[in-house]
Structure prediction request, 309 residues.
Amino acid sequence: MSGIITITFSPCIDKSTSVPALIPEKKLKCSMPVLQPGGGGINVARAIKYLGGEATAVFPSGGYTGKFFNHLLEMENITSLIIESSSETRENIIIVEESSTNQYRFGMPGTQLSEEEWKKCLKAVEENDSAGFIVASGSLPPGVPADIYAQLAKIAKSINAKLIVDTSGEALKRAADEGVYLLKPNLSELGTLAGLENIDAGAVESIAKKLILENSCEVMIVSLGSEGAILVTKEESYKVKPPKVDRKSTVGAGDSMVAGIVISLSRGMSLKEALQYGVACGSAATMNEGTSLCRKEDADRLFERIKLE
Ligand SMILES: Nc1ncnc2c1ncn2[C@@H]1O[C@H](COP(=O)(O)OP(=O)(O)OP(=O)(O)O)[C@@H](O)[C@H]1O
Ligand SMILES: [Mg+2]
Prediction:
């Protein structure tokens, strides 16, 4: 089994609460807030823990909020490589309106990282040469160059680790230009990669194959929400549709899926099984309220059903 490192340049504290109804100008009484550490790679590391695995999370952290953030991760026993930052770790707010059950998500802007700080994050990964897999996930805060995941791709190659990238926009394009092991775009991110506004579900396989032949990645897993996901490599392609689940909130589905994929690969499972377990973990995450990630018992049960089909 090979080690897993996740890297998150824009971590956040997710503060979730609810109000009876969202009414302007009035004082609204919120329920007791629940605070959770978040951000792409942070969630992947947490989900890996829930699934019975281990990952080291690399991230910048600063100010009082940063201290509290580190504490939240410590409470979940996540091994952390913390890069001290001079700017405060951001906080996001999630409010559920009880009358409608609508969820409102307010994301604060990412806090500035200096060149010294983001370079320290990269160095922390580079020095951890026991990592077989590196997961780079999430948005980039101001100060971090758009080619950061491309730089990470070079580092991954130099330490013989497999890089998995889950992000969007320019950062995703630059990573693909450099070439990584595995990309997990959703349909809109695949559009970004292919330079297309809209992608028809039927065209996913050929678009993914073209990107692989251009050396964007060796493996692509395109996630399709409730329709599951498609695995494409040079040699094969394979689609998995999840069984119907009692969906509560799709927040965290993508991160749980990536956790399921990388934990499977680190245990030496095949790409096909990693896809099946990834879909199971993504769908398991949707069975939980709010920002909650997947639970192992749900993921394992869905995986057994997917394997039978
Ligand atoms: N409505 C749903 N019902 C069942 N499973 C779902 C649903 N939405 C997502 N999933 C599961 O989660 C996986 C990833 O979801 P999705 O394609 O929405 O990723 P994403 O757009 O990257 O999500 P995120 O917004 O979390 O980044 C899917 O492949 C599927 O297994
Ligand atoms: Mg996503």
Observations:
- The longest helix spans residues 271-286.
- The chain has one domain: 3-10+40-85+112-308.
